[in-house]
Amino acid sequence: MSFLNKLFNRSIKEEETMTNTTLNIGIILGSTRQGRVSPQVGEWVKGIADKRGDANYEIVDIADFKLPFLGEEDAPGIAQWNEKLSSLDGFVFIVQEYNHSITGALKNALDLAREAWNNKAAGIVSYGSTGGARAAEHLRGIMGELMIADVRTHPTLSLFTDFENGSVFKPQDLHFDNVNLMLDQVNTWSKALKTIR
After folding, report:
1. How much is the average pLDDT of 116-121?
2. Domains defined for the chain, CATH in brackets
């Protein structure tokens, strides 16, 4: 067999291995405050995702990493945060709207990593009085700078119709299809982007 044929066959095997590898998708909880509802939303998304069997999905809670503010003294949580992000192929951000934007905790967590975000895909599930749409738009701009490819489908949850008393998550059935479509896009893009990392 010629050198070129061997090289070609090896490339095909490497590509097959890469495309057959199960993706790891992190569902990132974007709030750390007491009384937050993001864990309820994150578990709901994970429940839908796990039934698909197309990737490994896990909840990634920013609060678990005890991150310092950017520019403060280095802390072990920063290295652990970057290691966790590096182990993931894509993301689903659970985003709540605060003052027409994302939380300070999420912005800080985004800023405390760089290369670990690059060339990965992400979806957004947002909530707020207007479905968290303004927070999601701010997040899209930040993701562009971090070289995260954000997908188009974006489930938006209303504090008025998807939460009881603003604290108990009771999503309407109509969101189920949107979450699945968003996950389709995240997985397709994550698989494609894995080939260039």
Report:
1. 98
2. 23-194 (3.40.50.360)
